[in-house]
Design goal:
Glutaredoxin; Thioredoxin family protein; Glutaredoxin-like; 3 helices; four-stranded mixed beta sheet; 4 strands
């Protein structure tokens, strides 16, 4: 199963949109989503505060400027292929 790290914060419309895309893709790519509130960890806050949402799929990190249905699907497809290999 694919593991996704999803860096987010409360009251973030972009995060809500990214989560909706992940939930749609979850039907085709079985995965677990680890929600990580950046305000719960100083390191995450420092690293991601200007770029959330951030999605990490099997080492592929996508920030708010690069998250789309297509980019998420591509990363999930690669992660799926890597697990089969």
């Amino acid at each position: 199963m694919i593991h996704i790290e999803f860096y987010t914060k409360e009251h973030c419309p972009l995060c809500d949109d990214a989560m909706a895309l992940l939930e749609m893709l979850q039907k085709d790519y079985p995965c677990t989503i680890d929600m990580r509130d950046i305000y719960s960890n100083e390191e995450w806050l420092e690293k991601f505060h200007l770029s959330i949402p951030v999605v990490n799929i099997d080492g592929v990190e996508l920030d708010c400027q690069h998250i789309s249905f297509e980019t998420l699907e591509e990363a999930l497809q690669k992660a799926s292929e890597n697990q089969k290999a």
